[in-house]
Amino acid sequence: MGKIPAAIKPYRTFQKEKKLEENDFTGACFEGKFYGPQEVKILETLPSRAEIYAKMLGALKGPSSALVGTLQAPARDLVLVLKAYVKKLEEGGGGQ
Questions:
Q1: C-alpha separations of 91 from 22, 49, 54, 83 in Å
Q2: For residue 41, what are the CA distances in angstroms to 6, 8, 14?
Q3: DSSP string covering 11-50, please?
Q4: How many helices (H) and strands (E) does the chain have?
Q5: What confidence score (pLDDT) does residue 23 get?
Q6: Are strands 33-35 and 28-30 parallel, antiparallel or unpaired?
Q7: Positive or negative: CA dihedral 16, 19, 20, 22
């Protein structure tokens, strides 16, 4: 199915460029199955296979990135506290 939207989109661009919107599909046959005009309109709105893979990868990457951030937060906070403490010592010790 991922090949159908990829095949229709260039045709739709061509239609708009040449002002041929009235010249529309009455149906399509793909891999032995007939699709009527309404089915073609539905199929052309489907994302391509690459778009689906990108969305899936993004959905899988999001939680893992959040987990890494959560795991790194205590160490990062400790480093910031230690830096602030060192800065305080340097400011206090340098004035004496």
A1: 77, 59, 51, 12
A2: 13, 9, 16
A3: HHHHHHHTT-TTS--S-EEETTEEE-HHHHHHHHHSPPHH
A4: 3, 2
A5: 72
A6: antiparallel
A7: positive
pLDDT digits (tens, 9 = 90+) for 56-90: 998 888 888 888 888 888 888 888 999 999 999 99
Q: What's the token pair of residue 6?
A: 């990829």
Token representation of residue 5 = 């939207």
Pair of tokens at residue 24 = 């529309």
pLDDT tens string 5-54: 677 778 778 888 888 777 777 777 777 888 888 888 888 788 878 888 99
For residue 73 the two structure tokens come to 């937060």
**Joined tokens for residue 35:** 């699709």
